[in-house]
Amino acid sequence: MALKIQNKPPQTASLKQILQKYSSFGKKNGFLYNGLPQDVPKGHFAVYVGENRSRYIVPISLLAQPEFQNLLQRAEEEFGFDHEMGLTIPCEEIVFRSLISLIR
């Protein structure tokens, strides 16, 4: 029995999926291929945080940060990435804002 060896770790596949679905890289002529709102600047994506699902626009560069990757892993475990309610981060807003401040 042969084992299939993946060149890319699963984390990389998840990050690509996030970029394709939630980032602004799909913009062309003011329209978005994937239905993203036009108020998301190029190189950024929207996330929804906390009980009230407050919306934050964050730079794609955060995807490379281990702390943010941990939040994405928790989001995938709790909500999955294949849904229509936007990328939801399962933590309190104050924690999210503090983490983003520390990363920047």
From TrEMBL:
* A Pfam family hit: Auxin_inducible
One Gene Ontology term from the biological process aspect of the record: response to auxin
Q: Which InterPro entries match?
A: SAUR_fam
For this chain, the family text in UniProt reads: Belongs to the ARG7 family.
* PANTHER family hit by this protein: SAUR-LIKE AUXIN-RESPONSIVE PROTEIN FAMILY-RELATED (PTHR31929)
This chain's protein is named SAUR-like auxin-responsive protein family
Q: What is the lineage of its organism?
A: Eukaryota, Viridiplantae, Streptophyta, Embryophyta, Tracheophyta
